[in-house]
Amino acid sequence: MTEYCGIPLRLKKNSRAKRVLIKLVPGKGLEVVIPKRFDPSLVPGILDEKKRWIERTKATMEARGTDLSGRVPELPSQVDFQASQRSYEIGYVDRPGRLSIVENGSRLMVSGPGNDPQALLEALRLLTANKAREFILPRLDAMSRRLGLPYEALRVRRQKTRWGSCSARGTISVNAKLLFLPLELLDHLLLHELCHTVHLNHSKKYWSLVAHYAPEYLQLEDELKNGGIHVPNWFA
């Protein structure tokens, strides 16, 4: 079975997985993660049970311009940052030499070699990472003070899969992709990592602390696992 509902299918075994996890990954397709001892022959039946969700999620992603086939992404004409509620129209100028992006209100003008779309996309990715830091840092600071959960520093990264992490020294790292997610999911990720400054694990004490601040955390955790549906293919 190489595809499902017209979507490329990848099956991955994970020794740490406790249950079957189904994800639609931009640029890659449908990813099914199963526990190490799970019987792969049961996967088709599980997919059939989730078929409506898969088709609905696929439609949502494609409506946002997200490609699930693995093709090289096209240059976007617009970028929408859900978390900060900012949208920009994007124009391109074919100009040899150094790349540049000029922001004018709700419009971005990207200048660079028109025969190198990957370079133009990289410039947009760097801009997104900078916008993510500008938006997330004051939000994390405010949440840290409000909850009394101090942290050491913030790093914004461009990671493939992880939304965030917290080091033993209290440095919180977050994925720039969070800027594309709904604000409630970004805020939950920040809470998730701030709680790690108290418990650097996923023990019962840790989840009790998360639940103290967010009683609905289980639903938010599930939504965050599928947060990739909000990320456009050019940034994935």
TrEMBL record:
InterPro entries the UniProt entry points to:
UTP_pyrophosphatase-like, YgjP-like_metallopeptidase
Q: Which residues form the YgjP-like metallopeptidase domain?
A: 19-226
Pfam families named in the record: YgjP-like
* Protein name per UniProt: YgjP-like metallopeptidase domain-containing protein
Q: Which organism is it from?
A: Pseudodesulfovibrio piezophilus (strain DSM 21447 / JCM 15486 / C1TLV30) (Desulfovibrio piezophilus)
Q: What is the lineage of its organism?
A: Bacteria, Pseudomonadati, Thermodesulfobacteriota, Desulfovibrionia, Desulfovibrionales
